[in-house]
Amino acid sequence: MADLKAQIIEQLNLQEVKPEDIGNDQPLFKEGLGLDSIDALELIVLLQQHYGIRIANPEQGPEIFQSVRTMATYITAQQKQPG
Amino acid sequence: MSEPVWIAGGGVICGIGATLPACVEAFSRMQPGMEEVQYLHTIHRGVFPVAEVKADNATLAAQAGMPAHISRTALLSKIAAQEAWDSTGLGDLLQYRIGFISANTVGGMDKTEDFFADYLQHPDKGRLQQVLHHECGSVTELVADAMGIRHQVATISTACSSGANALMYGARLIRNNIVDIVIAGGTDALTRFTLNGFNTLMILDQQPCRPFDDTRTGLNLGEGAGYVVLVSDVMRKRLPNAPWCRLSGYANTSDAYHQTASSPDGIGNYLAMKGALDMSGLQPKDIAYINLHGTGTQNNDSSEGKAIERLFAPDYPAVSSTKSFTGHTLGASGGIEAVFSALAVQQGIIYPNARFATPMKEWPVAPATVFSSGNKLSHVMSNSFGFAGNCSSLVFSKE
Amino acid sequence: MNIYIQGMGCVSPQQTAAEGPFLAEIREYEGNRLKVLDPDYKQWIPDANTMRRMGRVVKMGIGAAKLSLQHAGIEMPDAIITGTAYGCLADTGVFLTRMIQRQESALSPTPFIQSTHNTVSGQIALLLGCHAYNSTFVHKGFSFESALLDSIMLLREKTEQQILIGGVDEITDHSHTILSRFGLYKQEPVRNTALLQSTTKGTIAGEGAAFFVLGTTKGAVKLTGLDTLYKPASQQEVSSAIQGFLATHRLSTADIDLLITGRNGNAGEDAAYTQLTQTLFPQTAAAAFKHLCGEYPTASAFAMWMGAQIIQQQQAPAGILYSGTAPQQLNRILIYNQYQGTHHALILLEKA
What we know:
Chain A: Residues 1-79 form the Carrier domain. Chain A: Pfam families: PP-binding (PF00550). The structure holds 3 protein chains of 3 kinds. Chain A is an all-alpha fold. Helix content of chain A is 52%, strand content 0%. The radius of gyration of chain A is 12 Å and the shape is globular. The two termini of chain A are 24 Å apart. Chain A has 4 helices and no strands. Chain B folds into 2 domains: 6-236, 3-Layer(aba) Sandwich (Peroxisomal Thiolase, Chain A, domain 1); 248-397, Thiolase/Chalcone synthase (Peroxisomal Thiolase, Chain A, domain 1, 3-Layer(aba) Sandwich), CATH 3.40.47.10. In chain B, 33% of the residues lie in helices and 17% in strands. Chain B contains 12 helices and 10 strands. Chain B has a 10-stranded mixed beta sheet, with helices on both faces. In chain B, helix 2 (57-64) runs parallel beside helix 3 (72-88) and helix 3 packs across helix 5 (136-147). Chain B is globular. The two termini of chain B are 18 Å apart. By secondary structure, chain C is of the alpha/beta class. Chain C has 2 domains: 4-215, Peroxisomal Thiolase, Chain A, domain 1 (3-Layer(aba) Sandwich), CATH 3.40.47.10; 221-351, Peroxisomal Thiolase, Chain A, domain 1 (3-Layer(aba) Sandwich). Chain C has an 11-stranded mixed beta sheet with strand order 3-2-4-5-1-6-11-10-7-8-9, sandwiched between helices. The radius of gyration of chain C is 19 Å and the shape is globular. In chain C, 59% of the residues are buried. The chains are: A mainly alpha, B alpha/beta, C alpha/beta. Chains in contact: A-B, A-C, B-C.
């Protein structure tokens, strides 16, 4: 999950945040890291670029991007799927 | 400062027609302009429907009387601006104190993106001619120069409200006695830059868009240009024909909520409509028809609906989004829809909203779905709201 | 009705955004590109989450806007108007490059969102929570002048307002490379402090932001007049326009205490400035500003900031004069700038 955190920081240009500052279960949006709807779109790009996962419907975002752990779980699940 | 400003004519080119009469014909026949991408080179061809102007650059250039290698944004602009001028019957433009206020958001990007493909290979590559007119202002000047306009030439870029702000600025130039006539509106060609940009926001519908419908899932991009000719009260007396109507009110506000999203209650939208109404000295009940901003995104339409509810409830005027035919033409939309709205007053037209079936939850009011003309429309409002919170409303009045 | 400059702020390649004596020292640069001396933008944009997406041009604009609001002692203007010819070039370049390199897939929304020309005005409104009139003019060498004309009209239409208005443009690696290919900049080694003595063609690229708060109640400097001349047919037309402009304000060329011109080291264009000043203003002290900020389409905003400072402080820094000696009393300054021979602008400032 450390890699993922670094990728999130880079994708979102979180200049003052270090990977260890982000808790695995810390909410990414609103009161957590303070991310917003544009960041959700950026995270969709991150998944496509780094993991080859395409999300066509942005409404899936809030569920997948609750925390770094939920993102990691989603990535693992997608990668296990054949084809 | 409160001298009346009149609409003496208008011109439009867009995905449903190359002239204003052709557009009106398309509305009356219920023929929206969205189709598979035909002229733009993009990998998204076949994925996102767009409302392109149905002509290649060579054809447009011949129509515009301009070279074919210049930006499509300028070609579209010249065609619509010329139609607008010719419709006034004012004759030789050079005899007047006249301004050209044109809005656009992409400038010569259609050429720049071709240039950049070569330039990124090596900084010495790419034909410079392709970036010569990259700037938004350059597009305006190509057209102003071709028409011979020198007194006031300006370009406004406030995203999707750009065209409406051009009318507003033009009217104020007349009221401040800086010029007597202004050709005002906007232009934008479809580009890969904007198509891909809106795609990153995931607000492009893969089906023809459904503004103000509960099933809406995004917008379709379009392209085109639209201009009105604004004249002073003094110039009005020299018009060979009666003016179409009067630009009786306008307001520009900022939503100041988010970089791209509209506020849930549409505060900027509300303030723009309220401001335009106040300036025209009208009550909400006086407005007979609203040409909606109506892009077809979840967020835009619900904010606009909420703002209309706050200002107009419980009795609503007829409303419709002509973007359901023309697609969202970005910097041109405010100009194109101003022409439609001004013509609506003159000819009593209520434009249809294509593909409407289910009222949306946030504001369950059905837009007009059939074309009608000969209605008595004393006052018509046109809304244009954009990125970065720019909101503008215009009011057109018979007298 | 008089219009006053009630506040001003400037972010430029010079030390203009910090406290301190006005242009006491001219910063020297080698090469044909002057970059803005970035102040600490956190002082105006404290929220890191807000700042992280902003391009440099947006920060420059916000910095200058905030400085001018502070200077005017207000928090909420009645309108926000920006002039920018190029808009947000850096983000435009990023999006364009990725779009081509990634063949239109897996693109980030942020550079697209930040690429639109109205981002500066929009972000200022967002930061201030300002719902008032908001506009952006994007017209080459008239971008700032159009914004200024809009402000003047707004104040004529309703006097009791305070308008935040400015000009901002950035230069990026891409734009510098491409504009260099058009031959705009000097090919040989150049130092900005020696620019005005140059005898070769080309100038140096620049960038910056200058914002103002304009109002109709008293301020130290009066914005008396503004005029633009688009593509004049001859130098004669320019001369007549300047004389006509002064006559409108019941002034003659002798009434001008200091002339600020857009002299930029491009020998051909500078010769036109010289001819004009020698004919129309033989006795008037003349100053320049583009050796301080470089050449860019909204550089006249820097000139207006400099002119207003000179009047307010009653002092013309030594590093800006290129002919004559500034008089003791600096009551009236005329700014004459032209951009690429096609966009000519006149701004008249007076001591209030």
